[in-house]
């Protein structure tokens, strides 16, 4: 049964339909590249989502990938030490939209028109659409002990995530804002290399369970440090498109999900 938004979101703290609240959120995202909304979910839902995640973790497809920060093939025109040819490791498990239970609060939140309207205002988009394929709209990511996301830039202009369970230690989201300007062709290889060398101070986001995060990662280099301890980090990615009838590429679906449908 589809839940009302008031049953999902702590609207007293996060009045999504309030114009001033929306403007404040947009200003924060525009100025810092990251919007962290703590206590977004109703507290009673957090243990339910955590148990749901544990119950379905056996369905997860686990991958370990070596990649460069641009998520592209290496470039023979540059040396092995160039950022285009330096590799990092990303490893995680993932369950897909069709593996999220039909009665999950995640479907109700993802589909809620008021939630999408709020996201459109804050992101500056005209409309947001679900993926046309059955796998890519809602993904629950698992990071067991030692698993991490290596440094990278996103291909998309925004990401929307919801923290379900934090690890005991580690699993920290670190980023460097505006490390490049891809839209204007300024790739800033020198700074990217310095970040990989650990010579640049990073910022981090605090994400307790129930926290919603909007992040612009196209130009801000970011990673998630390895999980430490036996408690799995569980994070939901709510993925939308700015155009209708878009599917994640077949190569990406095979890489991340191990299947096409």
Keywords:
seven-stranded antiparallel β-sheet, single chain, 6 helices, 13 strands, 23% helix, Jelly Rolls, alpha+beta, globular
Describe the structure.
The structure is a single chain. With 261 residues, this protein is an alpha+beta fold. It has one domain (34-257): Sandwich (Jelly Rolls), CATH 2.60.120.620. The protein has helices at residues 19-32, 45-56, 105-111, 113-123, 189-196, 250-257; strands at residues 34-37, 61-67, 88-95, 138-143, 149-152, 159-165, 169-170, 173-176, 203-205, 212-215, 221-224, 227-228, 233-238. The strands form 3 sheets. Strands 1-10-6-13-4-3-2 form a 7-stranded antiparallel sheet. Strands 5-11-8-9 form a 4-stranded antiparallel sheet, with helices on one face. A two-stranded antiparallel ribbon has the order 7-12. The chain is globular.
First-last Cα distance = 25 Å
Using DSSP, what is the number of strands?
Answer: 13
Find the CATH superfamily.
Answer: q2cbj1_9rhob like domain
Query: What fold name goes in the CATH topology slot?
Result: Jelly Rolls
Structural class assignment: alpha+beta
Q: Give the biggest beta sheet.
A: 7 strands, antiparallel
Supply the CATH class: Mainly Beta
- How many H/I helices? 6
Taken in chain order, the helices and strands follow as HEHEEHHEEEEEHEEEEEH
Shape: globular
Provide the CATH architecture.
Sandwich
Number of domains: 1
Regions with little confidence, pLDDT below 50 for 5+ residues: none
The helix fraction, in percent, is 10-25%
Radius of gyration: 18 Å
Overall pLDDT score: 96
Strand order of the largest sheet: 1-10-6-13-4-3-2
The proportion of residues in beta strands is 15-25%
């Amino acid at each position: 049964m589809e839940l009302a938004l008031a049953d999902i979101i702590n609207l007293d703290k996060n009045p999504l339909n309030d114009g001033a609240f929306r403007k404040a959120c947009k200003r924060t995202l525009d100025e810092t590249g990251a919007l962290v909304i703590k206590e977004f979910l109703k507290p009673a839902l957090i243990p339910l989502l955590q148990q749901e995640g544990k119950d379905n973790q056996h369905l997860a497809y686990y991958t370990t990938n070596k990649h460069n920060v641009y998520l592209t093939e290496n470039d023979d025109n540059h040396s092995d030490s160039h950022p285009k040819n330096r590799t990092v490791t990303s490893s995680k498990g993932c369950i897909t939209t069709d593996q999220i239970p039909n009665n999950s609060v995640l479907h109700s939140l993802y589909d809620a028109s008021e939630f999408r309207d709020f996201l459109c205002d804050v992101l500056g988009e005209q409309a947001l659409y679900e993926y046309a394929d059955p796998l890519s709209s809602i993904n629950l990511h698992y990071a067991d002990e030692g698993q991490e996301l290596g440094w990278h830039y996103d291909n998309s202009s925004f990401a929307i995530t919801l923290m379900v369970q934090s690890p005991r230690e580690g699993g920290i989201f670190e980023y460097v804002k505006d490390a490049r300007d891809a839209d204007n062709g300024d790739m800033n290889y020198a700074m990217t290399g310095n970040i990989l060398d650990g010579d640049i101070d990073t910022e981090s986001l605090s994400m307790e369970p129930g926290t919603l995060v909007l992040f612009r990662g196209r130009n801000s280099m970011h990673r998630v440090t390895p999980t430490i301890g036996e408690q799995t980090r569980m994070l939901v990615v709510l993925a939308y498109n700015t155009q209708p009838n878009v599917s994640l590429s077949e190569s990406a679906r095979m890489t991340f999900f191990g299947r096409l449908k």
